[in-house]
Amino acid sequence: MPSYSFYHIDAFAREAFKGNPAAIIPVPHFLDTALMHTIAAENNIAETAFIVAKENGVWDLRWFTPAVEVPLCGHATLAAAHAIWAHEGYEGNEIGFDTKSGRLTVKKLDDGRLEMDFPANTPEQVPPRLDISEALGDTPAEYWQGDYMVAVYEKSEQIINLEPDFLSLKNCSIDPKNTKNWVTCVAPASGKHKEDGFDIVARFFAPGSGADEDPATGSAHCILAPLFAEKLGKTQLSSFQAFPGRGAEIDTKLDGDRVKLRGNAMTLIEGKIHL
Fold this sequence. Notes:
CATH class of the largest domain: Alpha Beta
CATH superfamily of the largest domain: Diaminopimelate Epimerase, Chain A, domain 1
């Protein structure tokens, strides 16, 4: 019976039970895809990532929610890099991941955070969507379309108070190229969030992916970084992703057609998975 190391890591978090959990499983080669789907469903957390060591500080990487394989995932990439440095004996200062979205890199920063280099996803403004507004329960000021739909509100308190109808949202047609019905809701920070030093507050809803709401979504911030760099007139942003009961801190820096995603990660559980 083969067994593999297993790390349960909270990403974009400074303490346990914050940020977004990811299971990281190093394997000598990718397992059968159906088996990886099954393992992710058994784990039943936001993301399970499988990594395969290559050479010269490079790993292959694939990401699975409890329901689907995804082409890009920020928090599980951050968690994978943390696992490699903290548990797999790697001593270099930069890690490369070869993925279905191309080569991604992660660096150590002097302040202890990890910095990921992802492609920017600049959105375009689109007409209002009554069906999505009704499913969200509060009408946004603007709608923007990148790889995900973005609903922009005026105040961060509106983001905190959203109570979506997930069944209705799942049945909304978001975009012909993206049938997963994923919506990022965001507002400029106001009130306490602004006092705490955040620039924007966001939540990410993903009905149909195995979890209705994601606690921390790096890929969504590849859309929010260029959008709010334009809106706020600054290329570096501090974001609070306000998943109820958790909360994640994601810093971004827009660098041309790339987005630097910065955050902390910590290991919660370390063990073995037996197959």
